[in-house]
Design brief:
Layout lengths: L4 E6 L5 H10 L5 E5 L11 H17 L2 E6 L2 H6 L1 H7 L4 E2 L2 H11 L4 E6 L1 H6 L1 H9 L4 E6 L3 H6 L8 H17 L3 E4 L8 H8 L4 E4 H12 L9 E5 L3 H12 L7 E3 L9
Parallel strand pairs: 1-2, 1-3, 2-9, 3-4, 5-6, 5-7, 7-8, 9-10
Helix pairs in contact: 1-11, 5-7, 5-11, 9-10
Length: about 270
């Protein structure tokens, strides 16, 4: 049995959706999670800041024993992960390609919606992946800057007018285009999948980037074993992290949560 601690990082709570899937697939694996809530959101950061933050996050997880790392952040994956993978000895996984493969295989009419952060959309990375896999596909993209702040504040239900308004604003073009698949390109977005599905009236398959990435990582280390250890770190308040996780995921994190001092990114 392969024993390898899995490290996962994200800008906040969204990466916990990937951790949930990893726990289901690899219940005995050791997992260390870092939610960089002290620097959320990543979507509006410069490339130099994203590179610096991702390097720090990777080093943080490596120091805690991670032998394989999932960047559970669409923004990092689409902007700097290829560069990081070339300079880092630890195997790195992102959330873009597995979701693109799934979307290309699912669509029947060739119209695919893609929603993510502003930086992720602007990079064009995910759209290129889908086009390479399915030439001729119509990809309707939409940046959703309000989603992460709303989700992190616990606004996750279609019944909430704030979320309903944001969904209608961001997905109207995708709905009008008749997309039969929508890629949730940020790992926060599966938390509001129910509300998105409500707006789309169940007419599109939703592809979770975090879920697909977790499955790809699990397939790379079949039979991973360990003690089932879980450690959670946040650059924000540990108590807030726990209470937010309970609201968003319906349960508390499955291990201790430790707060660490956020690093300085001013001038980067």
């Amino acid at each position: 049995m392969l024993k390898k601690t899995i490290g996962v990082f994200d800008s906040g709570m969204g990466g916990l959706t990937a951790v949930q899937e990893l726990e289901r697939l690899l219940p005995d694996a050791d997992i260390v999670y870092f939610g960089d809530t002290g620097h959320i959101p990543y979507g509006g950061r410069s490339r130099s800041q994203l590179m610096y933050m991702a390097r720090r996050n990777i080093a943080f997880l490596e120091e805690r024993g991670a032998g394989i790392i999932l960047a559970a952040c669409g923004t990092v994956t689409s902007t700097v992960l290829d560069t990081l993978a070339a300079e880092t000895a630890t195997p790195l996984f992102g959330v873009a390609r597995p979701a693109a493969v799934r979307a290309a295989g699912l669509t029947k009419n060739g119209v695919i919606g893609f929603i993510a952060t502003e930086a992720c959309i602007a990079s064009g990375y995910n759209q290129r992946l889908i086009s390479e896999l399915l030439p001729g596909a119509e990809i309707v993209s939409s940046a959703c800057p309000d989603f992460v702040p709303l989700i992190e504040s616990g606004v996750c239900s279609w019944d909430d007018a704030r979320l309903r308004s944001a969904i209608e604003r961001y997905l109207s073009g995708i709905k009008a285009a008749g997309a039969d698949v929508v890629v949730l390109g940020c790992t926060h977005y599966p938390i509001i999948a129910g509300a998105i599905n409500e707006y789309l009236e169940g007419r599109a398959e939703l592809v979770s980037s975090s879920g697909e990435a977790a499955r790809a990582l699990a397939a790379a280390i079949p039979g991973a074993s360990g003690s089932g250890r879980r450690e959670y770190y946040t650059s924000g308040d540990a108590g807030v992290f726990v209470s937010t996780a309970e609201k968003l995921l319906g349960r508390a994190p499955s291990g201790p949560v430790v707060s660490v001092e956020p690093y300085d990114i001013e001038g980067i």
